[in-house]
Amino acid sequence: MHITQLNRECLLHLFSFLDKNSRRNLARTCHKLLEVFQDPLLWSLLKFHSPAELRKDNFLLGPALKHLSICWYSERVKVCNIEDWMKNSFQKDFCKRHENTVSDFLQAVCNRCPNLLSVTLSGCGHVTDDCILQLLKNCPKLRSLKLENCVRISDQSLEAVTLHGASLRTLHVDFCRNVTRAGLDRVRAKCPSVMLRADRSAGMIPDSKPGKKLMLEKASRKLVQL
């Protein structure tokens, strides 16, 4: 029995076990399998493990998407998450290549995926407060927003939660060092139904703290001298 003789339900079940690349490769073999690949039922969950994956043509982005995860765990995350003034030329060049990748993808999500229920972003150093604002405004059903090591996120994102996160029930801002205690307290006061977690955030030294750059420069010079 050939795979194309299976009914649509069986094919969808088969596709559900494959990763995005395997789905796309299989879809290229015939028109029937391409139709299965394009079925929205197959794309309610999307997981990405690097910015490069966001540029591939191996997934479908649409109203069926309910759960989105972009988790980038590698040494390259550290390169993009350190301040620009600390980077060497190689680091700056690498970081610049990915500067708009995640934000552009999230803009597409805002335009095409109004039924999102959960979003997880980890190690996305270029994601800004504006990205989170647009996500909350365009995805009103969002119930879970988990941010980890997103260094540009600040109290502006927390304020956006209080204004546009009516459906939100879970908010994590772990290792987001520009989030302050005051911002967290406002969320707790205005959104008591939201389960808030901020591990290693408000207690960390934010990028915007006066004198931080000078302090680190002096420490760097001492290390060089040693």
From TrEMBL:
Out of the domains of life, which is the source?
A: Eukaryota
Query: Single GO cellular component annotation?
Result: cytoplasm
For this UniProt record, the keywords arranged alphabetically read as follows: Ubl conjugation pathway
Any one Pfam family here would be: F-box-like
Instruction: Report the residue ranges that make up the F-box domain in this protein.
Output: 9-44
**Which Gene3D superfamilies does this chain map to?**
1.20.1280.50, Ribonuclease Inhibitor
PANTHER family in alphabetical order = FI18408P1, MITOCHONDRIAL ATP SYNTHASE COUPLING FACTOR B
This protein's name = FXL22 protein
Its source organism is Copsychus sechellarum
Q: Which gene encodes it?
A: Fbxl22
